[in-house]
User: Fold this.
Amino acid sequence: MLDKRHSSPVIVALDFSEQREVEEFVERLSPDSCRLKIGKELFTSVGPGLVRTLVKQDFDVFLDLKFHDIPNTVAKACAVAADMGVWMMNVHASGGRKMMEAARASIDSTGGEKPLLIAVTVLTSMAESDLVEVGLNVSPDKQVQRLAALTQQSGLDGVVCSSREVQGLHTMLGDDFLLVTPGIRPTGSDVGDQKRIMTPADAMSAGSHYLVIGRPITQAADPVEMLDSINSEIGFAR
Ligand code: C5P
Assistant:
């Protein structure tokens, strides 16, 4: 599996809408010092060409499209993403065991290096009342635990989880199950709209394997300097 823990665990969220902005930004980065995340906005705007370009430039690309559909459709979408050479991709755990197993089988049947496959459990935008409204009488914490365990049983490599959940999930699911954590703010940087935040060092010591960091790097006066300082804070030196 493509879990290269010797490389930087920082995944820079490319939350831009235009290819030109991304290209100008990425030009300053090196694949040795970070990985890159492409989400729904950028992918919908520019399509798979950019993914292929960044993969060709040797970047590890996390394709964050959170697939959620019938097993056959998700399996096929995963195969296409794997064929693009992405390093990591994700699905919604609430799509269920059959959907996750189909995604896993589809990736496992592709030749070459297999991308990491992780799941989103409960969106951090969902409060207990939102879960009740969709018929789930359960606390978000319990639902996260349930879906993370189901993700592991379905053979996936890990989950996206908030900094608040890292420690509990690490204890519950062990060190081999990857925890990918957004909501990271280096000391002194703007919190923005993130509510529960952790510093890079705290998230890593709580058990996180990869840190998704967007604006603190993309909006920094000097993104490379900010990335270098985050990498040294977490003890990753090139
Ligand atoms: O700019 P910032 O560091 O807040 O960006 C975090 C990235 O992680 C964004 O791409 C956001 O969509 C994503 N994310 C998140 N919280 C989640 C899941 C994903 O912030 N629960």
